[in-house]
């Protein structure tokens, strides 16, 4: 019985192209995953009084940071200072919301004119300060519900890398 082993030194991995291939595939899948998560977060974000065009939803963005480093990062975030408060909620006994930020909400949700909203604002702010409110958890929900699809995206990218390295 003869046992013969042969090793081939041909292919992209031996030509020094492996890092380039791996990096490009990771960048591609990171763009896909970031875009997917951005859409999911927006889907779970409360539209508020300004709707999707001017409210919190319009401040959510996805970005891929690569900058020539070996680490590729995908970020889905919001530019709104209220994003974290809406995500996590507000605990009872915390500081009141800033004066003036709830006026539009009071007008639309309670159906009152601007002058009456100004009079009601103090009461609403105090109530939020005393009772708090639960968070919408839009980022957390998007990640939890989207995890199986994200995992599949990156698994597929791994297979694609392996296939390209073997060419």
Number of helices: 6
Mean model confidence by pLDDT: 88
What's the story with the biggest beta sheet? 2 strands, antiparallel
- Which value, in Å, is the CA radius of gyration? 25 Å
First-residue to last-residue Cα separation: 32 Å
Helix/strand class: mainly alpha
How many domains in all? 2
Shape: rod-shaped
Series of secondary-structure elements, N-terminal to C-terminal: HHEEHEHHEH
Main-sheet strand order equals: 1-2
Strand residue percentage: 5-15%
Name the poorly predicted regions.
none
Helix content: 40-55%
What is the tally of beta strands? 4
Word description of this protein:
The protein has about 170 residues and is mainly alpha-helical. It folds into 2 domains: about 10-85 and about 135-165, no CATH class; about 90-130, no CATH class. It has helices at about 20-45, 50-55, 85-90, 105-110, 115-130, 140-165; strands at about 60-65, 75-80, 90, 135. The model has no long low-confidence stretch (mean pLDDT about 90).
């Amino acid at each position: 019985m003869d046992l013969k082993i042969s090793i081939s030194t041909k292919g992209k991995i031996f030509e020094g192209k492996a890092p380039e291939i791996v990096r490009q595939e990771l960048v591609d899948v990171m763009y896909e995953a970031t875009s997917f998560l951005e859409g999911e977060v927006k889907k779970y974000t409360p539209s508020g009084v300004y709707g999707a065009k001017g409210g919190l939803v319009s401040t959510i963005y996805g970005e891929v940071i690569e900058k020539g480093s070996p680490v590729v990062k995908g970020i889905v975030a919001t530019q709104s200072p209220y994003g974290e408060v809406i995500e996590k909620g507000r605990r009872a006994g915390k500081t009141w919301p800033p004066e003036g930020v709830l006026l539009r909400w009071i007008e639309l949700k309670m159906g009152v004119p601007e002058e009456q909203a100004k009079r009601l604002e103090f009461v609403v702010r105090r109530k939020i300060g005393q009772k708090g409110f639960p968070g919408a958890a839009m980022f957390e929900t998007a990640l939890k519900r989207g995890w199986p699809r994200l995992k599949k995206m990156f698994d597929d990218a791994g297979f694609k890398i392996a296939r390209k390295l073997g060419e």
